[in-house]
Amino acid sequence: MYAIFLTHVFLTLFMLGIIWFVQLIHYPLLSLIEGENFCLYERCHFRRMIYVMSLPMLIEFVTGWWLLYEKIPVGSVWLLRINAGLLTVIWLSSFCLQVPMHVKLIKSFDKHAYRHLVSTNWIRTAAWSVRSVLLVGIVYWLLNR
Questions:
Q1: From 34, 51, 106, 122, which residue has the greatest number of CB atoms within 10 Å?
Q2: Alpha-helical runs (H) found in 22-76
Q3: CA 124 to CA 121: how far, in whole Å?
Q4: 3-state secondary structure of 88
């Protein structure tokens, strides 16, 4: 039971680091790539990020929802429900907002798509940040009860 929880916490913190790196460093630098190089770069970026993000996100999603059915004494089941709800927000944002913009940008640079990608990615950045604080709080509570 605690192994699932700790796996979930680890993956959430891993994804927190990835998403802040992408938001503050990687996405802003995309705007510096010009011409035909942009599409090639975006295609390579998208393919490689899938390798880095998909398995951790999938395991994080499964373990986050699994925790709702485990008997982990976290003080309040609402904390785990908020966590699962924010996970759902991350997945919806990823597949309804970010992925379509990446697909569009693979074909050609589109200033509107690029700005939409960067601005809507704040949804995931905020959700992973809130979830990280929430989960670290639960870990602290479990260690000090």
A1: 106
A2: 27-30, 36-66
A3: 5
A4: helix
- Does residue 36 have a pLDDT over 90? no
Indicate whether 21 pLDDT > 90: yes
Nearest CA-CA partner of 3 in 56, 57, 81, 63: 63
pLDDT given at position 34: 81
Tokens encoding 138:
């639960």
Please give the Cα distance from 114 to 132 (Å, whole number): 27
Cβ-proximal residues to 56 (8 Å cutoff; 6+ apart), any chain: 11, 14, 15
pLDDT, one tens digit per residue, over 54-108 is 999 999 999 999 998 887 777 678 899 999 999 999 999 999 999 999 999 999 9
Q: Is 43 exposed, middle or buried (0-12, 13-18, 19+ CB in 10 A)?
A: middle
Q: Using DSSP, state whether 74 is helix, strand or coil.
A: coil
Which tokens sit at 118? 């960067």
CA angle 60, 3, 130 (to 5 degrees): 40
